[in-house]
Amino acid sequence: MKELVEVIAKALVDHPEAVRVQEREEEGNLVLQLSVDPEDTGKVIGKKGRIAKALRTVVGTAAVKEKKRVTVEIL
């Protein structure tokens, strides 16, 4: 999951070297924390949060195959 979020985020931003994804376990759920360069935050969130929602949908669908619950947080 972590690699999937990194690949998608790096494709969206101007500063791919600043993309960081951290994993942590919280109440049985996997939480992925995505941080990007402050200039790229808007590109990852998108207009009205559409890109962030799409990212969460893709990761959530991939998680279903592995029978996990995954949450993506954008910092």
TrEMBL record:
InterPro entries hit by this protein: KH_dom-like_a/b, KH_sf_prok-type, KhpA
Main localization category: cytoplasm
Lineage top rank: taxon: Bacteria
Record-linked CDD domains: KH-II_YlqC-like (cd22533)
GO BP term, pick one: regulation of cell shape
Any one GO molecular-function label of the UniProt entry: RNA binding
Keywords for this protein: Cell shape, Cell wall biogenesis/degradation, Chaperone, Cytoplasm, RNA-binding
Location of this chain's protein in the cell: Cytoplasm
Gene3D superfamilies according to UniProt: 3.30.300.20
CC terms in the record's Gene Ontology section: cytoplasm
Record-linked Pfam families: KH_KhpA-B
PROSITE patterns linked: KH_TYPE_1 (PS50084)
UniProt record similarity statement: Belongs to the KhpA RNA-binding protein family.
Protein purpose: A probable RNA chaperone. Forms a complex with KhpB which binds to cellular RNA and controls its expression. Plays a role in peptidoglycan (PG) homeostasis and cell length regulation.
Description of how the protein assembles with itself and partners: Forms a complex with KhpB.
The protein, known as: RNA-binding protein KhpA
Natural source organism: Melghirimyces thermohalophilus
